[in-house]
Each structure stands twice: as structure tokens, then as C-alpha cells.
Amino acid sequence: MEGPVLLKGSPVASLIYKEVETEVKTLQAHGVVPGLALVIVGNEAASEQYFLTTKTISSKLGINNFPYRLPEDSSVNEVLNLIKSLNSDERISGILVFLPLPGHIEPRMVLNAVASDKDVDGLGAISIGRMASEESTYQLFSPEQGVKNTFLPCTPYGVIRLLEHYGIGIEGKDVVIVGKSLTVGKSLALMMLAKGATVTVCHKQTRNLAEKTRTADILCVAAGKPGLIKEDMVKDGAVVVDIGINSLPDGRFVGDVDFDNVAKKASYITPVPGGVGPVTIAILLKNTVISAKKMFNIL
To answer: Among 128, 173, 226, 267, which is most buried by a count of CB atoms within 10 Å?
Structure first.
């Protein structure tokens, strides 16, 4: 039996980066350089990798990046004061706060402090609210039109772009999402609903998880638990999107799916790393240049 098609994010990201390069040149012709603030608190391994990758790629594309590293024991007020200063800094068109934050810092308080027009990761309350009320989900159907009022959360939107790039239809499909975080699970559920899927969201309190996951035409997993999804939890021919990224003691990064065994049954499956991650970063940088265009009224 042939193996599954790998849903690699690099081809999708490359197409988005070409758009970003064109838009950066347009901005530069008007004397504007887009800027991205990278705010990381502590030294969580997965965040550190994301931080370094985003910093490197944004620089290559002509986007100024402004890294802000705060120690693990930073107070809530220290983080909020930084966000406040970034909101009013005209050099900065986008602000990315890396998650998770240390346990003593309430993430919603920080994310909601980011000005909505600089919320390029799409996770603030205004961005989420506009998506939930379908003010911004039109972007799911016309991505080339950019963003009208707000930005969609990058990681779940990256899942949509990845599936569509590989010709995987969503309308009418049974989609099961494991993980209910606002960052990924809830937001992805809203996007899948907008695309016409029938959606089931599972989480820690879900009973008989395997019974639910075996019904999925498209199974999306973002639980933060290595190897959670086993071969017997996936139906033959399912599309499996592993959004998890977990750092192991030996330094490797793995997802939430037992890749080697689940791949025996899946028709399509994402590698980790190299699946959703590259698309997430590409969308983030695309949003950053769109924000810069809006800031300086360059349309």
C-alpha cells in the first residue's frame, strides 16, 4: 500500500512569500518599511524555535523585526507596558506575542492589550469577535483580497490554506478537532463551520475520544500531548492535520499524532515540523505588510 500524501507547508508558504515580497516593494517605493515586534517572555523551547524562524524569514523578506525578550519572572505590568508602547510606535505594523506565557501571566489580558490594527496573529478579543460574527471570515473565500476589518488567527487559517492548496474539500465533510483553545481549536471550528463542514470539538473532558476521532473525514489535532492520536483512533483514508508542536528531552520536536503508525491509515497527513508551521509564519508576515499598508493608507 502506498503511503499518504504529506501535507507539507513549504509550497504554500512560498506562494504567500511571493505576495509578501511584492507588497514590501510597494511599501518601500512609498518610503515605508513594515515592522514586526516579536515579544517573547521566558525561554519555552517551541516558542524559541518559532521566534528564531520568524525573525530570520521576516528579515529576508525586507520586514524590520523588533525582538523583545523579557525574563520568565517579568510582571504582568511590565509586559502590558511594553505592549502599550508598541501600540503607539509607528515603526511597528504588527505585534506577535509568543505563547505560552509564564503561568503567572494571564494570556488573554496580554493578547487583548494589543491594538486590533496591529493584531497580526488575530488572537485579540476584537479579532476573535469579528471572526465569530463573520465580519472577517469572507477572507476564507477570497484570500487574495486581503483583510477588510481584522486578521484571522494565523494557525487555524493556515490549516484552511494548507487543505485547500492540496485540493482537499471541506464543505460537507465531518471534521473532528481535538483541542478547544481559542488560539487554535475554537477558532478553527468557526472557520470550518464557515466552510460548510460538520464540526465536532473534543477536549480533555470528552468521553470515548477514539469513538469521536474515528468518525472524522478530516481530523485536526491541537492538544499539546505527544502521541495522543494512535492508529486505532483514525479511520481508513482520513485526512490528518497535526497542529501540535512538542519539545522532547532529546531536543526533537514532535506533534500530537503517532505519525509512523497513523500514516498507515491516513490518505493525507502533516509532518511535524514542516506542516502547518511554515504556513502560519507566512500568513503572519502577509498580515504584517497588509497592516503597514493600512497604517499609511497605501492601497
So the answer is: 128
Q: Would you state the cell numbers that stand for residue 222, as one nine-digit string?
A: 491541537
User: Is 263 part of a structural domain of the chain?
Assistant: yes
Kindly state whether residue 24 falls inside one of the protein's structural domains: no
Query: Contact at 8 Å (CB) between 289 and 23?
Result: yes
Specify the pLDDT at position 144: 59
Residue at 231 is within a domain: yes
Q: Residue 299: what pLDDT?
A: 76
Indicate which CATH number applies to the domain containing 264. 3.40.50.720
Run of H or E including 34? none
- Cα dihedral 231, 235, 237, 238, rounded to 10, equals -90
User: For residues 39 and 100, is the Cβ–Cβ distance under 8 A?
Assistant: no
129, part of any domain: no
Please report where in the chains the cell 524590520 appears, as a residue.
Answer: 64
Q: Per-residue pLDDT tens for 8-53?
A: 999 999 999 999 999 999 999 999 999 999 999 998 888 888 999 9
202 vs 190: CA distance, rounded Å: 14
